[in-house]
Amino acid sequence: MQMKHKLFLLFLLAFQLGFAQDEEVKPRRYIEDPKPIYTKFELSAPLRVNQYAGEIDPYTGEKEPWFLLDGITARAGIGTHLDKWIGVGMNIGIDWKANRCLVVAPVFGTFRLSPRISEELRITSEIGYGRALSITGDKLSGNFKKISFGLEIEESGIGLYIELCQYGFSKISPEKIGSFVIGLNYIVF
Hints:
Helix content is 8%, strand content 52%. By secondary structure, it is mainly β. Strands 1-3-4-5-6-7-8-9 form an 8-stranded antiparallel β-barrel.
């Protein structure tokens, strides 16, 4: 063997020993979700301001409450999310407004932000836009708008939220029907 080849082999052996290292495997900080789909169910109660709030009821002797229940709302939706933080979805529901004798079927899209504020709690905000169709026989329809804020327990998917929504039409007067809602949601990731 020539001297060049021996010197070259010695040179390669020296570099192999000199640059060997032990690499520490670090766990990924954010694990990718294999299923970026979520399903959401909501059940809530619209509230209306009591015009007799604070007055004494002559029949019961009790003070009138500030808010009165004004129906029930049930909605369901499906969407996609990025690390449970940002999501978009499609929703459908049934909203019953008791004081207006109105049943509405909103069909709307949503944009959702839900950053984590602790290890097990997320704060959520959601905006929605779509159409609201009256199904009580009076052929009303209009734009549906909503905005909601809430808290959600990450592990169980159960949350509490408040919402303002507007249906974009009215039965009698030119004002648009809207509601203030307090509800519970259940989200499955």
